[in-house]
Amino acid sequence: MDEFTTNNNISFESLPKTAGVYCFLNNKETIYIGKAINIKDRVKSHFLQPSYRDNLFMSKVTKIGFIETGSEIEALILEANLIKKHQPKFNVVWKDDKNYFYVALRYFIPQGKLKKDKMPYIFITHQKQDKNTEYIGPFIEGNAIKKSLKFLRKAFPFYTSANHPKQKCTWCHLGLCPGPELFENPPSPTRTTPRATARRESTAGLREYKKNIKKLTLILKGEKKNVLSSLKKEMNETSKKNNFEEAAKIRDKMHALENIMAHKNVISSQATENTGWEKTNTILKRLLNLKNDVSRIECYDISNIQGKQAVGSMVVFTNGQPDKSQYKKFKIRMENEPNDIAMLKEVFTRRLSHKEWTLPEVMLIDGGIAQINIAIKMKNSDKDTKDIKAISIAKRNKELYIEGIKKPLLLKNLHQSIYNLIIHLDDEAHRFAITYHKKLRKQELGLDNR
């Protein structure tokens, strides 16, 4: 990626403390792109305080790249354009109709106007459904793009709908809306204002509005330099015609644009993972028919070879993130025979006997209908644990079993954030179990010196 400055290894020291865009690479493949107020601090947070999403790909990162923008709005715009260009795997995997934002540009013909008088208006949307609408994005942070448009609207006023009241609206008085004039039909001709003159003035206003919208869309596509160059050219040409008042307006617009792009704060200074978990939590509650929020999820797995050195694992996610201080491992005590259900029963018996351990809202088990049934039986045997929701993941058939629902759900049909969470939990439980199993095998063979 030629536009990024990259490190040959994972090092924080060379990262700048300015606003910009960063990327994570797996060898030559760009797997994630993000923006930041402070690139160094944001990149460090991915490694030192990873979210449940970060844990899906941080182990794959071999290089870090960055581009300094010096401006939060430019970082926001550059991030959107680079994601669109490179389609990083771990940006795209979370993309759905409700996660990303687009700036939409749609044309309309005001009532009583001709087709050639069509005008654009601008709005923000989640969905790209209209073939006749131009979409700019995707933008990841909704509040940031809304703030950016509000600031840019000061330099390039625009309409946000195909209707406008006959009088000036609130946005007009704030200088953010072009006003009702462009919606009006040319005034009737008079002795001092012939029809041709009235029509010409109306057309000139529309032409100027369309030019402003074109400049705004170019800025959102990352072409600020071209816009400033175009404005400078217009100012010089206007000055040559001795239209100094108009030239001064263009100069003021240039200064306003440079000030907006350089100094406005639009990016949230806090990491957005908490907001992401709140959304995931809401979806998960609806999926599992839960009344209360999900703060703790436990996931269980069994690892053994024909019953030998059998172990069980329990991993814990708190608010969607691995809580490794709460992980537990169980060395199976029952006779060495390959019976995963009996082993799970032992693990659940031992886990639920620890009244001092915090209870989860959800228990996820690696397995199918037999595994979830034993979990339901064990938790329902105690009134204190019967409200825990049991679910299980059958990876062979790629299905999710949910307590209280007869038919399993296909994993591919789950909301992407829920799919990511379930897979991450299961992978982590499997990793923790197999690591302990391998350690016991090494000890048995005398290969472990510890």
From TrEMBL:
What residue stretches are annotated with the GIY-YIG domain? Answer: 17-92
Gene3D superfamilies attached here?
A: GIY-YIG endonuclease, UVR domain, UvrC, RNAse H endonuclease domain
**Where do the UVR domain residues begin and end?**
225-260
Q: Which CDD domains match?
A: GIY-YIG_UvrC_Cho
- One Pfam match, by short name? UvrC_RNaseH_dom
- Keyword terms of this UniProt record: Coiled coil
> Could you identify this protein by its name?
Excinuclease ABC subunit C
Species name: Candidatus Staskawiczbacteria bacterium RIFCSPHIGHO2_02_FULL_34_9
